[in-house]
Amino acid sequence: MNACAGVFAVSCSREQTTGAQTLQRERQLNEFLAEVERRALRIAEIAVRDRDEALDLVQNAMLKLARNYGKRPSEEWTPLFYRILQNGIRDWHRRQFVRNKVMVIFGRGSRAEPDYDPIAAAPDPGGRTPDETLQTQQAIEKLEQALAALPTRQREAFMLRMFEGLNVAATATAMTCSQGSVKTHYSRAVHALREALGEHW
Amino acid sequence: MNTPTDDKGLEEGAKALFDESVARLDAATLSKLNQGRQAAIAELVDETPARQWIRWMPATGVVAAAVVAIVVMQGPAEVDVPIASDSTMTDFEILIGEDALEMIEELEFYSWIDLADLESTDNVG
Predict the structure, then answer these.
(1) Whole-angstrom Cα distance, residue A158 to residue A166?
(2) Backbone region of residue A126 per phi and psi (left: phi > 0; alpha: psi in -120 to 50; beta: other values)
(3) Are residues B74 and B113 in the same domain?
(4) pLDDT band at residue B98 using 50, 70 and 90 as cut-offs
(5) Is B2 left (phi over 0), alpha (psi -120 to 50) or beta?
(6) A192 close contact with B: CB closer than 8 A
């Protein structure tokens, strides 16, 4: 009887430990995702120029991170999350490319960037004069256009390094390339942005 | 020639604008992000052994289908093929023998011999 009680106690203790670990993992993941989700959304939005598509990409990246890497140390999550997101963005561009080709074949032409209007999409922030708001929004729009015009790898390197604040090693992991490539892409991106935005900055 | 200071200004300006755009995200978008995050966390919690097994189900199904397909494709090869009997083999050997062609050419002669044998037997009887 005592032996049964002992086994039961050990079993309960293990379950409690596992439950506590799961809860802690859940809390860590929640904090991590809450920390990165907004910037990730904007990074995706700049890359695909569509907020709904960007939301889908970010949500998909969050699901894949939790499903495939949820048990990995939390320090590894940032580069892994952005690797998943960047892969998703690249796949999205491939699908768009194929879709546009098919549309051209069927005579419907390509969907040009179009309906996306950052000014209309932006919420009313309040607390600023309309002129200030407009100027800031125009600057954001210019920046987004310049970023969108960059080659994919340069844009990725710049946004991950500058907007997300990843170091060179983490950016290389996220981009699945060498650290030297990250430095090259980043340097070229800065020069290209300097040329594109020179008059505004 | 741009100086590092110029580049730093550009980087800081871009970062400030980006942060500004992040801060401007509207409530509806934030709500959708929150929903996505909760779905992802639920995915982490639901990682039970049963769920892990369910994840392998499609692969298991494909493997099972492949095994069945292989068995079905190999089935006809196992159908019993009539095995030649001894007598058939003997006939075959006669046919491919060296004398076979000569026998066929003189078939009328052998028929006549058979008839003659029969007649002589009848006469004796």
Answers:
(1) 10
(2) left
(3) no
(4) low
(5) beta
(6) no
Q: ipTM of the predicted structure?
A: 0.74
Report the chain B residue with the minimal C-alpha distance to residue A57.
Answer: B36
Please report residues of A whose CB lies closer than 8 A to that of B22.
38-39, 42
**Contacts of residue A37 in chain B, CB cutoff 8 Å?**
33, 36-37
Query: Which positions in chain B touch A190 (Cβ < 8 Å)?
Result: 7, 10-11
| Angle made by CA atoms A81, A21, A72, in degrees to the nearest 5 | 30
Task: Tell me if chain B has a CB within 8 Å of the CB of A54.
Answer: no
CB nearest B40 (choices: A25, A65, A71):
A65
Task: Give yes or no: residues B56 and B107 share one domain.
Answer: no
Question: How many domains does one find in chain B?
Answer: 2
pTM of the model: 0.63
Domain membership of residue B18 as a residue range = 4-78
Residue A152 has pLDDT above 80, yes or no: yes
Mean pLDDT of the A97-114 span: 70
Q: In this structure, which topology does domain A130-201 adopt according to CATH?
A: Arc Repressor Mutant, subunit A (1.10.10)
Residues of chain B with C-beta less than 8 angstroms from the C-beta of A136: 17, 20
Residue B54 and residue B35 share a domain: yes
CA B87-B88-B93 angle, 5° bins: 95
Do B9 and B54 belong to one domain?
yes
Of B42, B59, B78, which one is at a domain's C-terminal end?
B78
